[in-house]
Design goal:
Layout: H1 3-19, H2 25-36, H3 47-56, H4 76-83
Helix pairs in contact: 1-3, 2-3
Length: 89
C-alpha cells in the first residue's frame, strides 16, 4: 500500500472508529467488513473496500460511488450519444 492510500485510510478510519471506541481494531474492521457485505476472511479484505465503504458509510444508499460520479449521466439517451461521440463535452 502506498503512503497516500495509507494516509487516506487512516484519515477515514479514525473518526469512524472513535464512534465505536468500545471495539478493538480487529472487531471494528470485522464490523466494517460485515457492513460492506464482504463475505471472505478478514485477511482478504482490501484497503479499497475499506476506503470506499468508509467514504459511503453515512451517505444515502442511492448516492453514486465517488470516482464513478464523474461519468454518471441522468439520461440513458444522452449517455449513449456521448459514448458514440455524437455529443462532445
Amino acid at each position: 500500500m502506498n503512503s497516500h492510500r495509507m494516509k487516506e485510510l487512516i484519515a477515514l478510519l479514525q473518526p469512524a472508529w472513535e464512534k465505536d471506541a468500545d471495539l478493538n481494531l480487529l472487531q471494528f474492521l470485522q464490523k466494517l467488513a460485515h457492513e460492506s457485505g464482504f463475505q471472505g476472511e478478514l485477511s482478504d479484505l482490501t484497503d479499497d473496500t475499506l476506503i470506499y465503504h468508509l467514504k459511503m458509510r453515512d451517505s444515502d444508499q442511492s448516492e453514486a460511488i465517488p470516482g464513478l460520479k464523474k461519468d454518471y449521466e441522468e439520461d440513458f439517451k444522452t449517455a449513449i450519444l456521448r459514448a458514440r461521440g455524437v455529443i462532445k463535452e
